[in-house]
Automatic annotation (TrEMBL), chain A:
One of its GO terms (molecular function) is calcium ion binding. The keyword Protein transport does not apply. Residues 370-471 form the MRH domain. The gene is LOC110538428. Residues 216-251 form the EF-hand domain. Pfam families: PRKCSH-like, PRKCSH_1. This is Glucosidase 2 subunit beta.
TrEMBL record, chain B:
Residues 372-698 form the Glycoside hydrolase family 31 TIM barrel domain. GO terms for cellular component: glucosidase II complex. Coiled coil: none annotated. Residues 182-210 are annotated as: Disordered. It comes from the Eukaryota. This is Glucosidase II alpha subunit b. InterPro entries: Gal_mutarotase_sf_dom, GH, Glyco_hydro_31_C, Glyco_hydro_31_N_dom, Glyco_hydro_31_TIM, Glyco_hydro_b. GO terms for molecular function: carbohydrate binding; glucan 1,3-alpha-glucosidase activity.
Amino acid sequence: MSCALLLLLTSLALVMGTGTAVEIQRPRGVPQSKRQFYEENKPFTCLDGSSTIPFDQVNDDYCDCRDGSDEPGTAACPNGSFHCTNAGFRPAFIPSSRINDGICDCCDTTDEYNSGATCQNTCREMGRKERESLQIMAEITKEGFLLKQQLIHEAKRGQEDKQGKLTELQGSKKGLEGKMEALRTVKKTAEDPEKEAKERHLKSWEEQKELIRMEKDKTRMAEAFLELDDDADGYVSVAELQSHLELDPDSDGSLTETETQGLLGGAGKVDTSTFETVWSGIKDKYLSEVSTYVMKTYVIQSFPYPKGSPGSGRSNEVSIIRFENANVCTLLSASQSLICGPEFIWICRNLEKEIGFDFGPSAEFAYLYSQCYELSTSEYIYRLCPFNRVSQKPKFGGSETNLGLWGQWAGPEENLYSVMKYDHGQGCWQGPNRSTTVKLTCGKETVVTSTSEPSRCEYLMEFTTPAVCQEPASLDEVLHGHTEL
Amino acid sequence: MAAFIVRMGPLLVLWLAVFLSGTWAVDRGNFKTCDQSAFCKRQRALKPGQSPYRALLETLELTNTKLTLQLINDNNKVRLLLELYRLQGNMTRVKINELKPLKPRFEVPDVLINDPPTEPLSLLSQDENGVVLSLGADSQWLIVSAKPFRLDIMEGREVLLSLNSRGLLAFEHLRIRKDTQVDPEGAEKKEETDAANEPAEGETAKEDGMWEETFKSHTDNKPNGPSSISLDFSLPGVEHVYGIPEHADSLKLKTTDGGDPYRLFNLDVFQYELFNPMALYGAIPVMLSHSAQRTMGIFWLNAAETWVDISSNTAGKTVFGQMLDYVQGSSETPQTDVRWISESGIIDVFIMLGPTPTDVFSQYSSLTGTQAFPPLSALAYHQCRWNYNDQEDVAAVDQGFDEHDIPYDFIWLDIEHTDGKRYFTWDPHKFPQPKDMLQGLVDKRRKMVTIVDPHIKVDSSYKIHNEIRSKGFYVKNKDGGDYEGWCWPGNSGYPDFTNPEMRAWWASMFAYDQYEGSMENMYTWNDMNEPSVFNGPEVTMHKDALHGNWENRDLHNLYGLYVQMATAEGLIERSGGVERPFVLTRAFFAGSQRYGAVWTGDNTAEWEHLKISIPMCLSLGLVGVSFCGADVGGFFKSPSTELLVRWYQTGAYQPFFRAHAHLDTPRREPWLFGPENTALIREAVRQRYALLPYWYQLFYHAHHSGQPVMRPLWVEYPQDTATFSMDDQFLLGRDLLVHPVTEEGGRGVTAYLPGKGEVWFDVHTFQKHNGAQNLYIPVTISSIPVFQRGGSIIPRKARVRRSSSCMEHDPYTLFVALSPKRFAQGELYIDDGHTFNFDKQKQFIHRRLSFANKALSSRNLAPGSQFITPSWIEKIVILGASKPSKATLKTPDGKENLLEFEFDASMSVLTLRKPGVNAGVDWTVVLQ
């Protein structure tokens, strides 16, 4: 009868080091911490106090205690647990039902002492691997945490900057309004146009303006090309351009492949020289990926005011206005369109929106704003644009599917910023709208590492970023916090 | 999985637009009513009355094995041949065919396990009105009346059953299609011969759908013309009839007056409705009748579309009316009349005369065989979902069960695991290393099921398709080309499983070197085998499609049986005949029990669907199919947490225990509903695992003797009329009574505990209750009421592990529930759990456990058998006991050991500590 074999076997653990082997005796499956309750040859009281039994009924393969404490080393109790020492790795408790079930659960093989299963002691190997991976993790955390500090710093500056810009924009709007008022007055009173002077001046002004404009435009074009060329192969491709929804010719909210190709003049991709012609077609709509507002404000500020215009001694505006009434009108309408036009409002709104986002406790996630990260699988390209949207596009043709729009931070209470939720994506047949959960883990780089669809139309994305790296505990602490013995 | 839901993209868009249009319930319009099925309409138009059939007594011939006799239809002079057989085991077979059909009519092959052995009939008397035959045993007679033709089976002076007593025998003989241009004279002549029940041919015939019939956009060409058959049966003294699955209806069949008959026609019904007689996935044309005096069965062996009408002279009566009859001594005895109508084939009916329910089960299984004895693990818990997405998903779910300490044995892969719905293949991206995945399960002593459906993608780069096509194994369309229809893979062919060569080839495809990536721990699921054809009439195959010489019309209901038969054979063959197969099927017919398990198809996550799972599986059990289950949680829609928990608790006590969910539903693995619900589900599954020894023993009996595993109460209490309509509770074997909680927010149930003078013990509390009472039992969410019969002994394994294989060598705990007379009896069956060695080499242990005279003993029930088990007796729990002064264990070696024991006086429970004796040997425990 097998139970005879099970009677109170003691396990041996050798403590290495001084050369003296110390024998620790305890009933099978009992952790060191509970050793004291199992005293040989004394009646054993169930740990819940429910009853007391002779010691020879401990580990005799029959369950006497309601809490299972009399059978720490056998599978007799339905609610018992077995302690594996796992020297070299981490000790563990396993449910009693896994003792002698033919499956190796403890790396020290102690759970399979009578099942015929052949188990290898893998504790040392596992310990080594764990230490290695902990070490790697710790290094990542350390570096990641440094990066995070940088991000926080940048975010702070960026935030102030943006607030400043917004204030400035709002201020310049006011200023422009004031100037417009002035212009209107000037327009009323302006007389005696000096036609010839005006023409001459106007011509040179235009030339100068054009020159500046071309220069700026070239810079912008070069910047745009570099930005667009995601894979840095020296070409801008359809796919690379396609994310720029603002270029959509029919403004239906989606930029199809055909439309994009049209923008590229029918080509699949263009190099820098061809891009010049493409650029002229898209520059008016093009929004920079990096820092939209900087570009835009730059353009606005640099637009119509050449320095050193004729009529010295007067302010530029006034001198121009004095040349020609019509010019006053042009300026008026230009100013008006600047401060009342959709672009200006859009910029202001975006700035306000961005400033209003919850970018984490120290705004460490701010750098993700208006960025996009892609992951290519065998069938799809997944694209995560943090704080904006998640989408999926078939690799081999077909239209993009919206997997969810930014919803909120959705981590557990103690770690709210570990999960992002995107919802209200494209609807599913007879199902919910698509949604995506993005799990954030600490990493040196900002990368989408995996995507899956665990449930129909509910996507899961793994995303690494330094922004979630926690202040690292010292490596020693990490390594020793987990080991007994 | 199944029914038809979209995820096939453009392929199905058109189909969806037509069939679904966004609705979320069965579209009845897709399926025929009797009125829309031409032969049913024609047949049902015939009213009871004088039968035109007359027996030509001068043609009577009596041999050792049978009596033959010609019948003539006096209206059209067409002659029929009647064959009567007395079969061993108290059965009578009645066969009626045309005497000289234009061409052979279909007779169902492969369903009977052999040519049923006959007993001699003897002629007792004969005159010009008829003949009287002795049926041998029990003073039973068969009376053949000549004019009109009628058969009565009598026992003593009592009529047990009459055939054609209402004159509804109707046999549409095969005929040559006549030109629609009929000259007036000819027409007149015809009228003389063709009578009222013989519809005129020609133009009217066309209208009657005799030669062509259109349903929705589908036209059914009928080159053989009308061929339907019908016969009525009267059952005096009978008020309760059961069986003829598959219908989502109550256990007791309802009368069909004023509605449609029950329909038997294997169909893939999308989101089926409850409590109606519509056809579903399977068909078993067997009806049981039961009264306090006798149980009988009618087995109508016909595989064509069949409709069954039921009427009763008491059904319409109110309770008051019945009382009045009783008080006034009304002479009218209750009677149930049944009428069977089939589209083609012959009349071949087996009358099983009982008289007990057990007898009827034995009789039916002597004809069609018994339940396949499944591998033990197949009786454990199955985790399924449409779909487990990839290998990582499978590994994660497997890990989830371990993390939450919930046992399971099988994880299932639905159609998405294949490479583009090409069965026998794997999606190369999602399942690149199937053997690694299967080995991972082997390491946990667990198993897998993959789906293999019978529709084959028409794709010249698909090996299976090419072979079937080149061998000419596909079903043909009426014009002789390969029949094609739409199913999951798009355009698909349907292998002709009625062809034995095709089946042999199919079976060979399961060999390990043919089915790449398969391993010993991988089993099979046959879905969509009605067959489902998305763009076919009623979502199935065209009736004029050809299986060799026969039309699908003739054998439609057999297709699913053949698919499962060939698949099960494949699994047996791949192991060299050693291992028992496990195959789940959705479509089935009489005899399907021999090949594996059946589930109730694509149900819905609603309380009513949980409720209906009980009568649906009870009905199947009555007609041979014990291995039945419903998708736990419900396939369509998403269950509330409470419903899911209740479904697990119910499913744990139903034979086939598998959770399944539709692709579009949120995930519902047991641990996704918070720790409390995880614990509730864990407990339900653990109860199942602890009881596996009893389940296994019940299935051994089902396999051995055809007794159902899950039984209506009346089977064990045949005289207790209170049980006759009961289908909210059931018995497992004789000894466990289960009353699931199927009401939302249920705080209590009223269970009926049968058996005057008997007692029942609550298995959770050990509380004793008297039999023959309605008992209100308060319930919590933690469990459902289950009772053990006083007088029974049930073996359990209390050490629940992560799979049934892990528990193989574990010790047993015996639960001895004493009867009021302090008696109890039970069994213990043990074998290796997965091979045929129990059968071929008698390698098993079968023991009788009995408690009498204060002694519990174990004795060998099968002296010729041998098997060695390491399992031992861990504990004996005696319910309803008194406290002994000592307990002594006596073993065959003459040793006597005193056993320690504990006695709980409040519940009268005696627990004997650790007898420790091997489960395979003789022993006795004496209480003093």
